[in-house]
Specification:
This protein is an alpha/beta fold and 236 residues long. It is built from ten helices and ten strands. Strand 1 and strand 2 form a beta hairpin.
Length: 236
């Protein structure tokens, strides 16, 4: 389980996170929704060690993550698919996937995991020798998620996986997130498409200007009038 307690993060003079606390139980899909600038990406970047916390605690299976190096955090079983996909455009699909396994030495298992990623994303197998920069936006997002899975994480952090994608592709991505979770990977999802995120989430938190203002099951937040008004549009 991932447990965040009273986490404070400052960027220069700006307080990005103001004492947030949340839990991501093993085997669940947990989503964090909120407007741009609420602190969602900062939360993920602090978990992975990309951003330093001012104070608080992030515990992963009882181990404190704050102060650990990024490679130690990845080795402990946490991987992130970043916002904006960030694939390596001049490398092939297969080369991008292999980079995701850079901390691993088990070649036979890496080969098996490449096949596992291809089973989740058949389109990546069809394009395995294609340069990542020539893929469509949806294919690049699949590659970013696949690359994160190559470290064989127990916890997958997803930062805005549906951003800028066509509605049909968004449906595909969310179907795959469910399948990844069904196969035993815990998921912490940050998503502006609150409607889709809450539909697949076991647990959900609303983040507003660095503070958690609401939490509950995905279904509870989907039915919450404040959430409907702020994030779902009243008609949904």
């Amino acid at each position: 389980m991932l447990k965040i307690e009273d986490l404070h993060v400052h960027y220069g003079g700006i307080q990005a996170l103001r004492g947030i606390s949340l839990e991501v139980p093993d085997g669940k899909i947990v989503t964090l929704i909120g407007a741009n600038g609420a602190g969602k990406s900062t939360t993920l970047r602090t978990i992975t060690g990309l951003v330093k916390a001012g104070s608080g605690s992030i515990q992963w299976n009882g181990q404190e993550l704050l102060g650990k190096s990024i490679d130690k955090i990845v080795s402990s079983g946490i991987a992130m698919s970043p916002e904006g996909r960030r694939v390596f455009p001049d490398l092939t699909v297969l080369e991008n996937l292999k980079i995701g396994a850079y901390l691993r030495k088990d070649k036979a298992e890496i080969a098996k995991d490449i096949q596992w990623v291809y089973s989740l994303f058949p389109r990546l197998e069809e394009r395995s020798w294609q340069l990542a920069g020539t893929l469509s936006g949806g294919e690049q997002q699949m590659l970013a998620v696949g690359r994160a899975l190559m470290s064989r994480p127990k916890l997958l952090l997803l930062d805005e996986p549906s951003l800028g994608l066509a509605p049909l592709v968004v449906q595909d991505i969310f179907t795959i997130i469910r399948e990844i979770n069904r196969q035993g990977v815990t998921v912490l999802l940050i998503e502006q498409n609150a409607n889709m995120a809450l539909k697949i989430a076991d647990l959900a938190y609303v983040l507003e200007t660095g503070r958690i203002t609401l939490s509950g099951t995905g279904a509870e937040l989907l039915a919450n009038e404040k959430v409907k008004e702020a994030y779902l549009g009243k008609h949904k």
